């Protein structure tokens, strides 16, 4: 695909440069061809609501490059959605983002102290090891003396994150994740793409209406949300199932429920270890609650356990829930209005979903949970610098 050939940042630059061009005056050649090809698609209402993920799979592969070209040609509406890292302050909940940053700072301080105590080399701001620097005895003494206070600071910072979550049903945690601005921009972006007439693939094998967010070019923002915000929170809430490598990758989509289209979803478990389901804030709908039961591989007869319901109608725009992907749930019938939700599935490399619980000694500490993202960023920066130097 064009996006993979160019790289995310180069792709974004090419898209952003075209975005200001009015659609009416831009060249529509690729868009017109994509619309014509899309005439082959059956009506969404005639598609199956079971095992539909493979529906016309090879057709979508065959035309993927054309649809990518058409989307670039059509242009994007809100550039900030495509760079969540840069625009986090306006798109993510301020309270949550502040608490996450405090955890990262506490984890970095604790990690540096442990490194100094162990006598391992530290790292420069660009991610390269400081070869000329080794901890002195005084540095080790300071680090050892500071460990209890640093651990206490780490515990307090993570407790502040916990205070922003409430368990609304067994294993179901509600939190404010996005700002209303994010919700409004994403809905407008979706309407903008729908207006193009470029075919959009169904979100998953059960939902027929909505969009896969990677297909809109949002994969960089989804990866940032997953690795920086949700992965450490998931490891904090569910330490027996989420440790290193278990929630590094994400699949994001928007689902739409409306009378005359999809109004409900049969009971199922997700293809994820951790799921975020967030309300995008369309007001006035009735019904559409999620009904949760037990978790596969963890509970005995999980589908026979007493149900617990969670309603999005009472949530503010940008509020959502986190739950184990293996927890069985269903969307109850929507009786009026329209509900649109942002859903993110998280899992390991190659789509692996952890089901075997970790022993206590295998679970991540708070320091490891919250230092992972910054350490990955430093490593990537160092590797990029090394490759650049090798290429000169």
Automatic annotation (TrEMBL):
Its cofactor is L-ascorbate. One of its GO terms (molecular function) is dioxygenase activity. The keyword Protein biosynthesis does not apply. The keyword Kinase does not apply. It comes from the Eukaryota. It holds the Pfam family OGFOD2-like. Residues 246-348 form the Fe2OG dioxygenase domain. Keywords: Dioxygenase, Iron, Metal-binding, Oxidoreductase, Vitamin C. PANTHER family: 2-OXOGLUTARATE AND IRON-DEPENDENT OXYGENASE DOMAIN-CONTAINING PROTEIN 2 (PTHR24014:SF4). This is Fe2OG dioxygenase domain-containing protein. It comes from Coccolithus braarudii.
């Amino acid at each position: 695909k064009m996006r993979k050939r160019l790289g995310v940042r180069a792709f974004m630059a090419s898209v952003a440069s075209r975005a200001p061009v009015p659609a009416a005056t831009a060249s529509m050649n690729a868009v017109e061809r994509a619309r014509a090809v899309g005439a082959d698609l059956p009506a969404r209402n005639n598609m199956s609501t079971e095992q539909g993920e493979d529906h016309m799979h090879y057709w979508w592969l065959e035309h993927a490059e054309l649809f990518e070209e058409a989307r670039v040609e059509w242009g994007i509406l809100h550039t900030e959605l495509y760079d969540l890292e840069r625009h986090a302050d306006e798109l993510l909940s301020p309270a949550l983002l502040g608490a996450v940053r405090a955890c990262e700072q506490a984890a970095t301080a604790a990690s540096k102290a442990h490194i100094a105590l162990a006598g391992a080399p530290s790292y420069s701001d660009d991610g390269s090891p400081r070869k000329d620097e080794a901890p002195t005895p005084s540095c080790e003494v300071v680090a050892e003396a500071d460990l209890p206070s640093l651990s206490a600071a780490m515990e307090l910072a993570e407790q502040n994150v916990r205070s922003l979550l409430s368990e609304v049903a067994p294993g179901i945690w509600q939190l404010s994740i996005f700002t209303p601005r994010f919700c409004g921009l994403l809905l407008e972006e979706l309407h903008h793409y729908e207006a193009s007439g470029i075919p959009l693939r169904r979100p998953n094998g059960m939902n027929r209406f909505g969009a896969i967010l990677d297909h809109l070019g949002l994969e960089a923002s989804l990866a940032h949300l997953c690795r920086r915000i949700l992965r450490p929170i998931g490891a904090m809430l569910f330490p027996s199932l989420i440790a290193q490598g278990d929630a590094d990758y994400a699949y994001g989509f928007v689902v739409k429920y409306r009378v005359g289209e999809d109004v409900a979803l049969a009971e199922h478990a997700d293809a994820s270890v951790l799921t975020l389901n967030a309300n995008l804030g369309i007001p006035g709908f009735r019904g559409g609650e999620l009904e949760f039961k037990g978790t596969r591989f963890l509970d005995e007869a999980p589908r026979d356990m007493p149900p617990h319901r969670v309603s999005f109608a009472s949530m503010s725009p940008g509020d959502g829930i986190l739950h184990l992907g293996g927890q069985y749930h269903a969307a109850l019938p929507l009786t009026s209005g329209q509900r649109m939700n942002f859903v993110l599935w998280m899992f390991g490399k190659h789509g692996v979903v952890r089901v075997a619980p970790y022993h206590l000694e295998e679970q991540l500490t708070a320091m490891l949970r919250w230092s992972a993202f910054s350490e990955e960023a430093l490593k990537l920066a160092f590797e990029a610098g090394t490759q650049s130097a090798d290429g000169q």
